[in-house]
Amino acid sequence: MNVYFEVGSGSILYQDYFRWLADRKKVVDVFQQIRKKYGIQTTRFYLNSDRLHIEPTIADVTKLRDFLLSREEGKFKVKTPMNEEWREAVKALKVEKPQLFDYFRLYGLRWRERLFSVGDKLYGSIEADGEVELAAHCQKMKASEFYEILEEENGE
Questions:
Q1: What is the rounded distance in angstroms from the CA atom of residue 34 to the CA atom of residue 76?
Q2: How far apart are CA 47 and CA 138, in angstroms?
């Protein structure tokens, strides 16, 4: 079942999404500060509040060998100065994009989700292998309306 919707501005999902959007620049700034302080070359990192995880260059792998997990490329060990600084700096920020699983009853289903904003409006879709019940804070919309908004946003 496919369901398309607009998320109401008074909902927790709406607030969490726009907080995440506002905090993204702060998260990037935190990474840039740590990157410069420790001489990390890569500019690519994964959004995770528990652990600093980079997409390392060859030079990073060589230089940071003692600080990175050997079994997971680019993931810092918990008790490294870089990771501890990362966790402390981002603990008050919304690092990960909200996942619809946390806001809808999707237990036991396989699903794909989409969540995006246009101005101050928040839209989402869920494609699931079962029945999806929209939360009270969501207004169902036609697929054609949803895709029209999506295409306008993507400039198609």
A1: 12
A2: 27
Locate 133 and state its tokens.
Answer: 């019940």
CA 128 to chain centre: 20
Picking from 107, 114, 96, the residue whose alpha carbon sits closest to that of residue 6 is 114
pLDDT category of residue 156 using cuts at 50, 70 and 90: low
Kindly report the length of the chain.
Answer: 156
Distance CA 104, CA 5 (A): 12
Give first-to-last CA distance, the chain, whole Å: 26
* Number of neighbouring beta carbons within 10 Å of residue 139: 12
State pLDDT tens for residues 35-61: 999 999 999 999 889 999 999 999 999
Give the number of other CB atoms < 10 A from CB of residue 143. Answer: 11
In sequence order, the 6+-apart residues with CB closer than 8 A to the CB of 11 are 103, 135, 137, 138
CA distance 104 to 124: 12
